[in-house]
Amino acid sequence: MRSADEFHLFDTTLRDGAQREGVSYSVTDKLAVAGLLDELGVRFIEGGWPGAMPKDTEFFARARTELDLRHAELVAFGATRKAGARVADDPQVRALMDAETPAVCLVAKSDVRHVERALRTSREENLAMVGDTVAHFVAAGRRVFLDCEHFFDGYAADPGYALEVVRTAFAAGADVVVLCDTNGGMLPSGVARTVTEVREKLGGSPRLGMHAQNDTSCAVANTIAAVEAGAMHVQGTANGYGERPGNADIFAIIGNLTTKLGHKVLPDGCLEKMVRVSHAIAEIANIAPDTHQAYVGASAFAHKAGLHASAIKVDPDLYNHVDPAIVGNDMRILVTEMAGRASVELKSRELGLDLAGRPDVLSAVTEQVKRKEAEGWSFEAADASFELLVRAALDGGPARPFTLESYRVIVEHREDGAVVSEATVKVRVRGERVIATGEGNGPVNALDAALRAALVRHYPGLSTVDLRDYKVRILEGSHGTGAVTRVLVESGGEQHNWTTVGVHENVVEASWHALVDALTYGVRNAEPARAGS
Amino acid sequence: MRSADEFHLFDTTLRDGAQREGVSYSVTDKLAVAGLLDELGVRFIEGGWPGAMPKDTEFFARARTELDLRHAELVAFGATRKAGARVADDPQVRALMDAETPAVCLVAKSDVRHVERALRTSREENLAMVGDTVAHFVAAGRRVFLDCEHFFDGYAADPGYALEVVRTAFAAGADVVVLCDTNGGMLPSGVARTVTEVREKLGGSPRLGMHAQNDTSCAVANTIAAVEAGAMHVQGTANGYGERPGNADIFAIIGNLTTKLGHKVLPDGCLEKMVRVSHAIAEIANIAPDTHQAYVGASAFAHKAGLHASAIKVDPDLYNHVDPAIVGNDMRILVTEMAGRASVELKSRELGLDLAGRPDVLSAVTEQVKRKEAEGWSFEAADASFELLVRAALDGGPARPFTLESYRVIVEHREDGAVVSEATVKVRVRGERVIATGEGNGPVNALDAALRAALVRHYPGLSTVDLRDYKVRILEGSHGTGAVTRVLVESGGEQHNWTTVGVHENVVEASWHALVDALTYGVRNAEPARAGS
């Protein structure tokens, strides 16, 4: 704990990052994102704003039983108490306490213009609000981070008052005071100057943090500048998601701090998870991963094979700013899809399938993944589909529990306003031809019901499997008609959940592919024989 | 000319930016991009590498007659002469001369390791290549820029040699020597340190340039740091397009230099063209504009309203780092979960609908938005649906161009493997009962085709409207069966795009709602009457 406290990697994907236009996480999504961030090894995960957002209140309640964090601690976010109220009576403060997180992050005004014009209270009352609220949580044994909203503008306008807010927070027991460039207008030189000045004026070794927004396209640089000037706590979000142009991308922050400045900010063995975690969170947020993102983008180390292809191959250090493998990425010379042998092998090993002694299988799977990814498939968030693909290659061919003859799905909006969906599937199961019909509240549910009905007599274990979540993405949507649809299906059994993928120009057929993988995986999982395999 | 020479905005979208994976400009595309960059007012446009790329040779030939530049000068790119050859005999040098541009940009090795290991020549010969080639073009009356490839790594490895390359170029008559962070591994503090040191060691006021790549997510910051350290020439690309994570985004560079550092880098009246030029170039490159791009993204100034909508309304300067209008952008308030009256009013005003004098309508819309958002609707990305909702409240009721009787959609996977979708809609249009059938590559396309077929005779303007993008989200996926599906449909006419939303437990019905809004909006838009409304 002591040494981890020398530097804080603080992730706010689930709170500030969720302000990104178009993003809307379910509670289940939030739990999955938190699990991924913990796997990556960040020190703190800010999960949301209990009280203000009902979904976030539920997230913290479920997190207590459903999240088993290995590296990170959860942080709940809230504001200082209302002006003129007693801190203990403030319902928002109570909701924050009730989240029962080991740490809380409080946002406070530090720009006197915001105090007077937005909050409409006095300079003194704002300081009292900061002091009271910090002390209240410290007294309850919580670690307190204080986010100074609009700090840099506030410091420029009235440095004395901005510093007074910082001093008040420290005096009340705050662990770290975070300087926020809330409107994102700063440049690195200004950040460095201000952080340096603030440290000098406070004296000692104040524990300062940095929260940057990307409105000048400098959020990562501003964060690095603050660290170089002495900040020991940095706030970022996965892939830089956030309001307006977003927050500082935590993957670029990690990459820069680790490989450029020699700060060890992740536990051993975690840096190489960056690419996978980045892409998996993008899938959950239902945002296409930025292929050109620094460090983690599929094209981050893609060189157009020009005059220097052979030189690059012989001497990659001359052309790459870091070795792509250390962040879990690959160098690509030709214009091909990602997934080299190394990442397939790494991924397989994670799933308990050792391909080290099977170069033939490794090659076959790598080729197949490349070919499918070129068609729009993505295995980043679809472990079950990837596992089926590797197992099929290991076993010498696909082992489906059934074969399809045909299906038909009908969706009707009737004259009386009722909307009904019905699906009929014709399949062969263990030599028997089975026709089954299912209804559902949509075409995919109906198809799922029909397929399950056809299979369940032969595979009774499927009766406990159900469809938990369903995500759809249109790829290359320049014209609706030419696009390809990618579907991710999350299924759950009694023990755990798994995700599968399907791609086709028709959303129903894409869903069918994902459902077939989902139930195939479910059948394999339900068979007692598999437990020992 | 003299004063314009004090600072160079040098655009390389068409040369280095064209290295971006997936980008392939035709010559006509290149001419269009050059025209847009000239309109924006950049000082130099690097158009390509004649000789190396046949398309670029043609570009320069056509540019002489087809491009009428008002602000910019064209630059052709090339390399220093081959080792051991006479400069006048080098075919690549000849092709560069034949491009007949007033200026050329020569790339040279400045990292001794690249000289020895990639170029496989001697330190001395490389210096001779630089000196000969620069002098050759200067003698022909051309202005010469020299790009020092991998300068920062080279300077770190062998500062004396790197400086010798710079000195050789200046001695031979180069106008500007550009320090390139070719592999993009630098951070701003290191750039500032190196540029400062180089200037000191060279003495006088050397005319230095900066070329940054975005591999640390700091390309813009590195460019700004170089300018702060004395560089007077910066190279960037539109939207940061380029190899790997790309180049420095010229729009963010312009925004930062102008609004943060007070450098006037564009002619009067040009700054506000940034958004339009950025999006137009994205269209030509066939890349979806990055909605979260600094300064020019559609979401760059989009605030999730929440608690502070009223404060933002009164005092936008407290929340925006610059006035969005000066770069041709708009502030947008997103109507979200926490929408109150203030944000509904503000949003309506953005859409040209003033509700200030209609508190009854404002209340009704606010209530309706809250109720619908509780059901899973989201208007933050669906301006067209929001506008229809407000207009319906203003006009006293919904004004749909048709009413639905029923529809039926069938998706079949046939025995021969073919997947087909077909939809039939029965609607009433202006008193007439219409039955129409459409096919598509999925249920939504089929439904869209059928509905459009039913309406187009009465509303011929719809023939130019099509479905551009389609997004699906399952909300609260705790159990597939209980989930609600939200669909966002982006449609486009001849002039602009609009987004609509639909929510239902059945994905097809949700899509239907979004399609109905999309075509209703399309009909209203296509009616000439609306232009004056």
From TrEMBL, chains A, B:
<dbReference type="InterPro" id="IPR000891">
    <property type="entry name" value="PYR_CT"/>
</dbReference>
<dbReference type="InterPro" id="IPR002034">
    <property type="entry name" value="AIPM/Hcit_synth_CS"/>
</dbReference>
<dbReference type="Pfam" id="PF08502">
    <property type="entry name" value="LeuA_dimer"/>
</dbReference>
<dbReference type="InterPro" id="IPR005675">
    <property type="entry name" value="Citramal_synthase"/>
</dbReference>
<keyword id="KW-0100">Branched-chain amino acid biosynthesis</keyword>
<dbReference type="Pfam" id="PF22617">
    <property type="entry name" value="HCS_D2"/>
</dbReference>
<dbReference type="GO" id="GO:0009098">
    <property type="term" value="P:L-leucine biosynthetic process"/>
</dbReference>
<dbReference type="GO" id="GO:0009097">
    <property type="term" value="P:isoleucine biosynthetic process"/>
</dbReference>
<dbReference type="InterPro" id="IPR013785">
    <property type="entry name" value="Aldolase_TIM"/>
</dbReference>
<feature type="domain" description="Pyruvate carboxyltransferase">
    <location>
        <begin position="7"/>
        <end position="275"/>
    </location>
</feature>
<dbReference type="InterPro" id="IPR013709">
    <property type="entry name" value="2-isopropylmalate_synth_dimer"/>
</dbReference>
<comment type="pathway">
    <text>Amino-acid biosynthesis; L-isoleucine biosynthesis; 2-oxobutanoate from pyruvate: step 1/3.</text>
</comment>
<dbReference type="GO" id="GO:0043714">
    <property type="term" value="F:(R)-citramalate synthase activity"/>
</dbReference>
<dbReference type="InterPro" id="IPR036230">
    <property type="entry name" value="LeuA_allosteric_dom_sf"/>
</dbReference>
<keyword id="KW-0028">Amino-acid biosynthesis</keyword>
<keyword id="KW-0412">Isoleucine biosynthesis</keyword>
<dbReference type="InterPro" id="IPR054691">
    <property type="entry name" value="LeuA/HCS_post-cat"/>
</dbReference>
<comment type="similarity">
    <text>Belongs to the alpha-IPM synthase/homocitrate synthase family.</text>
</comment>
<protein>
    <recommendedName>
        <fullName>Citramalate synthase</fullName>
        <ecNumber>2.3.3.21</ecNumber>
    </recommendedName>
</protein>
<keyword id="KW-0808">Transferase</keyword>
<dbReference type="GO" id="GO:0003852">
    <property type="term" value="F:2-isopropylmalate synthase activity"/>
</dbReference>
<dbReference type="Pfam" id="PF00682">
    <property type="entry name" value="HMGL-like"/>
</dbReference>
